[in-house]
Amino acid sequence: MTPRRLRRMAGRILFALLLLAIAAYTVFPFYWAVVSSLKSGSALFGTELFPAQPAWENYLAVFRERPFGRNILNSVLVAGSVVAVSLFLGATAAYALGRARFRGRRTLLLAILAVSMFPQVAVLSGLFELISVLGLYNNLLALTFSYLIFTLPFTVWVLTVFMREMPAALEEQAMMDGATPWVVLTRIFLPLMGPAFVTTGLLAFIAAWNEFLFALTFTLTEEMRTVPVAIALISGASSFELPWGRIMAASVIVTVPLVVLVLVFQRRIVAGLTAGAVKG
Predict the structure, then answer these.
(1) How far from chain centre, in Å, is Cα 21?
(2) Residue 278 banded pLDDT, cuts 50, 70, 90
(3) Does residue 42 fall inside a structural domain?
């Protein structure tokens, strides 16, 4: 075997080892959460890679002792409504910002992006006052309204980039045939922007699904809480005896749907992340 082939083989082996190390680094925390969710008592402090006697009752206890099913439904409703509103407003705003020419367009885009740079705690007090005035405290609508602060700017910015890449000939031909801007957006551009919608929608869903601070502040009763808050408030007999097995079981339950969504839409996600970087 020639030295050149040896170098190529060594490079491939090193690259494979690097990919394996990255995969292990990213997957192992979730795997350990699954393993910990199947332990209880002193077994939680063991180091075995899989428990000899899995404690499946941790998963049953999560739903038996708390309204965890209702918490999951709350998260689904809030995250779903946030995605729907973000995509609708984001698509219409992106069409105006990406296709129309008017003074101050770039400044407006930068202002939209700047809104997402504020930390949540900086706007928490103002949002609390606004939600209290609107009578939305301890209501899922309060979460939908507040989550748009960090999902909508990102959605508008990303969809605007994709909207700019749409061929002008399609829009001009449709206008010549009498199509209105709304028809151009809904009948021509939106079908072509499927990967962009999947990517931005999934990222907005994940952000809303995992949000904790607003959900903790704007909800009061257990029946109105979302899953991050419900998991954080799981407690044992005392403040020094946290049921880590049940906490891990609840964490696995709420993480699996996100993993499934990413696996199902992985091709569209990759297409959506790469298409906006290609001109022409």
Answers:
(1) 25
(2) very low
(3) no
